[in-house]
């Protein structure tokens, strides 16, 4: 792409071969730095969210534990505020221009806005399920199992968008299923029969929550992609629309399922510094990744996933002390990491090398 760009700007007779390479090197080094920054941000966001959420759900406190439904609603409010500020920045801090834009895109286009009610509802369900999953599974097991969203996203992409998967991608999905199966394989642990039964029951609840989250993530992601392809709109405006629906649906769900607890202790019961960090990471983290992801290719995303799994395993074992790895876990995690790289592998045509030489 860089060579084509220079060719359009300078006609062949005036091209100076001595000046092109430094520009190319500078551009290449800048892109390389952005990729490494992207890698760091992806690993940090993914790992920190999972670990802090797990820690907050297992932390023993004197008072009542915070409500997961309340944390989801709070995150949506923070996301709406953040996206509104970003839209204001795009409009050079002109409040009138921002209000006009939001009115035109949200109020004056009710049909387009209502289309986002479906993914918003699914994302709200998914966020609640993640709290359930991390209340019952350690961070490492959760991280590996949640990679099944690659499988669900691929299947929904084939059925809804008509995408075609290559041989390597189908092989990676088989590896992925095999790896997750090994990670979830029951192991003989110490303790009496009652403790084993409680542990198995908790792991089953966590597994079901992760599987449902994977399905909802795959469908909502593909559905949202389909909407984005049909209309041209700022990603921040889209996130405001999603956030508004998610807030309403999340608030209704909170009142229905946790109404009694809300009446007794209020919406922010059990909130602590850790809870606020979880809410902030869930709200802002996804937006940061949305900005960074355009600099990350498939290989880089594979590295980010792998490093995140490794970090979650180490911290769960040495710091949270809620995880005892087995040989099956390591084998399964290795298969999942390999599947992540294989799914993102793009086979380059043989003619590309000769084109570069010319």
UniProtKB/TrEMBL annotation:
Keyword Transmembrane attached: yes
Principal subcellular localisation of the protein: Golgi
Compartments reported by the entry: Golgi apparatus membrane
UniProt region (Disordered), positions on chain: 1-24
Keyword Signal: no
Membrane spanning residue stretches: 36-55, 67-88, 165-185, 205-224, 236-257, 269-293, 300-320, 326-345
Gene Ontology terms for molecular function: pyrimidine nucleotide-sugar transmembrane transporter activity
One Pfam family per UniProt: Nuc_sug_transp
Family: Belongs to the nucleotide-sugar transporter family. SLC35A subfamily.
PANTHER family found in the cross-reference section: NUCLEOTIDE-SUGAR TRANSMEMBRANE TRANSPORTER
Protein name: Solute carrier family 35 member A3b
Organism: Amphiprion percula (Orange clownfish)
Phylogenetic lineage: Eukaryota, Metazoa, Chordata, Craniata, Vertebrata
